[in-house]
Structure formats: structure tokens, C-alpha cells
Amino acid sequence: MRIVRIGGQSTELHGAGEIGAKAANLARMAAFGLSVPPAFVLPIRLCADIIEEKAHAQHDLREGLSEGMAFLESATGKRFGDRRRPLLVSVRSGAARSMPGMLDTVLNVGCTTDAVQGLIRATGRPRLAWDCRRRFLESFGQTVIGFDLAPFEARCSELIASEGVASDRELDGEAIERLAVDEQALIEDRDDGWLEDATVQLDRAARAVYQSWMSERAQAYRCLQKLDGLEGTAVTVQAMVFGNGGLASGAGVAFSRDPSTGASRPMIDLVLDAQGEDVVSGRRTPDSEEVIARALPRIDVEITQVLKRLEREFGDVQDVEFTVEDGKLWVLQTRAAKRTPRAAVRIAIDLVHEGLISPQQALERIADIDLASLTEVSLVSAGEPVGSGIGASGGIAVGRAAFDSDSAQRLAASGEPVILVRPDTSTADVTGFAAAAGIVTAVGARTAHAALVARQMGKPSVVGCKDLKIDVAVGRAELSKATISEGDWITIEGDTGKLYLGRGETVGRRPEAELAEIARWRSLAKKQEDDAAAPKASSIGAA
467: left (phi > 0), else alpha (psi -120 to 50), else beta? Predict the structure, then answer.
């Protein structure tokens, strides 16, 4: 089996059908000089064999991992699991078509206790080293061995309370070390050799990522998005860069244009002192622009420049995941951004005007949108808002409150529109997203994977409503002294992030100017087809 190398001295380019769209784009970025951590890819064709446990699959997997790790060690000058200069890696998925958040990722693989000591030696940062260890235990425990995260979360909450701080980000190195030790105690009865063996960790993580292809949420997403023809996922193993090394570091997601409205301005979310899962999982609300400007004064300029370049290279709006390590920007992923239908139309028109695509390409990109039903909905009257959050997907939604996916599907089946109200945005709720008219969360980011899925489905969404207190077990939420029970009517405004009680009155407006331009493109394309066919018809008549 042949692996594909990315970065280092390699300039190999391969198609998305072989190594997945994520890895194919990663290789392109490395080839044209962006700062991309080196990586290698196990191909999509191995996925089915791993899932079916074919005799040769485990041998091919181990051979590919061994060859790939030798490449990464050479490219980075580090050694996997070493006590002096340890190499940690992420193990990521990647199908031929983007499936944001539906497949698994394992971070900080190789973080044994020997590697922790090596990180302390190499960086002089005990907090960073132990934070990587506890993050690895959480990621591997949940993804690979199916351990419930609740005991981890409970222990972390207890420690935060006992230390008198607001979040785990404020815990010092000694407290983080205790947290890692406590988390290991919670999970070590599940140890069958992986806790202190980096090679076993890597093998099991790669198999888990392949097997996530058949997870319930992945199958549901492929069904909803008509992606049943995809053959599987690749596995990308990439050298870790550390966004959790302090306030000169962080992890984020950026869009080259607003994927909700289509406005020609970048949208950047960054969480300082964090790793990528903190952002894309929706479990943390990003830091404010003011906080980021103080910590990393030039990073927004650098990210904006990268976004512009990627738009030119790929000819479409880009969704970029990145890490900042001690002030240095690393690009981890880029893909065509999921967007609302109204954003898709505006973006297509703008890209034509800017000369990045032709009218014919624009028509192909919006071919699946029902233009006859495309409207921009606004509120006429709804009273005073009872709360607000971050507008993650534009539009107005009015419906009955539901607090889990099962309730959302049950209420929707009765013919009523539903607003799914959740503590955070999780891609496990994809069936609830499909049933709902809109989505609200107490925490999260507009760039989280679940927000991406909401936009792709055209569902208005408001995230990060910090005053929203939800009790899923009893089906009730508190917001500004108001109580919202399951089945109560609420209204959300996905552009402004505002929430209202009751059924707001709405009005729709058709984007006539945009629709007229699209009609002109279609007329021109039809004329060109007719002109091309005319000589053929004359020739047939003459013959």
C-alpha cells in the first residue's frame, strides 16, 4: 500500500477520490508555500477493508503507519514518543466530499508520560505538556475506547471550583498535572497496552477513524446529503502544532466571506490557548476581537491575506482551520465553505464580477437551489428580545421549542415547525437539525462544525447565548427570567442573534436584482447552445 506524503520536501498532488478532499487540499497548500505541518495519508481504498476486517488490512495499516512515521520524524527532526524531542500527531478523517464533524479525529496521539517529560524538556512548559496529556486521554478515551466524557467533565468542573477560577484555561500547570493524573485513574482499567505505547495509540486511532465511517451520525448525514456513493474516508496523520501553549497561541476557523449572508468580508473565530476541537466542537465561545488584538496584534491581517490567496487558488469561498503556535500561523485545512442558499447566490454573483469564475460555473454551483422559493425573511413584529447570542446562520425561524433531537423529530412529525434548543452544537444532533426550522445553543461558535451543517441545510441558527440555562432532562430553559418549556413558541433571528418569545410576524422579500442577473446568465447560455447547434443543423439539411 502506498502512502501519500505532504510537506517536508514532498510536492505530491493526488485527487480527492484517492486521499480525500481535505488531504488533497492540504497537499496543494503545502505545494504553493503556505505553512502546513507535515503529514502523510492512508488512502480511502483501505477504509472498507479495515471495516470488514479483511486479513491483509491490518498488515497494510501497520506498514503504512510505519513508513509514514519515518517520514514525519525526518521532516520534523522529532521522534514519536521520545523522552527528549517527542513528536505528537493528530489522526484525522477525510472523504472525497466534505462531511464536517461527522467523522472522528484523535489529537495528541503519542502523548505517553515519557513524551510529557520530553515536551517539558523541549519547551520548558509543564502546563503545555500536561495539558496535551489530559487532552489526549479525553480524545482517545471518547473516540477510540468509547468512554463517556461525563466523568472527565465532572472532575474538571470540581477542580475549577476548588481552584476558584472561571475555566480550565485559568488552571495553572500543577492543577493541570493533577487533572491529567486523575483522568488517567478514571480510564486506566481500560488500558490494554495503549496508555504508554505510542505505536499502539497510533494504530488504534487510525482504525477508529476508518471505522467512524459507519457511525450513526455519518450514515445519517450521507443519507440527508445524498452522498451514499462515497467509498469511505482516508486517514491523515499530521504533526501536531500547539495552540494550547499560552496567550500567544490559539486555534481557530476562518471563512473568506460570510457564509450566512454572502457579504464580501472575512469571518474569523479564534480561541486563545486552545486546540482545534475547542472551536469546531462548539464547546467554547471564541475570544473577542479586542482580546485577540492585544494578544496577537497582527494575526488578523495575516489570516486575511491567507484567505484571499486561498480564494484565488481554489476559485471559491474557503473555510479554513488554523493554529497559532507562539505567534506563528499554521494552516491545517481548507475546503469550500458550506453556505446558506441566499449566501450561495450572492457569492456566485460576486465571484463572477471579480473574474474568479465564469457565469456558467456560477450556474453550476447554484443548480440545486430552488430560486423560485428563494426569499429573504425579516421580522415585522416580535416584541422585545428576551436574549441574544451570535448569529451563526441567517434568516428567521419560528417554531415550538424542543430540547433534544428525538423531541424535535416528534414535534415536527405533528406538522409544527420546531426550534431545537441545545446546550452546545454537536454533530450528533444532525437528525434534529434536519427536523428543525432553526437552532439555538447556549455555547458555541459560528464556525463550529454543527453551525456549518445548519448553514448547509439552510437553517437559521443562533449560538453562544450565554444567559440561556437549559435543563434537557426536564425539557425546560431559563432566559432573562422567562421560562421556556417544550412546545412553547419562540422566534429566532439568525442574522442578529436575537431571541423572542412567541410567534413573531414575518415578511418575505425576493432578491429581484440577483435573480434577474441569474436569468440573464441562463438566457446567454441558452443562446450560446443554440448558436453552437445551428451549424450542425444546417450541415444535416445540406447532406
Answer: alpha
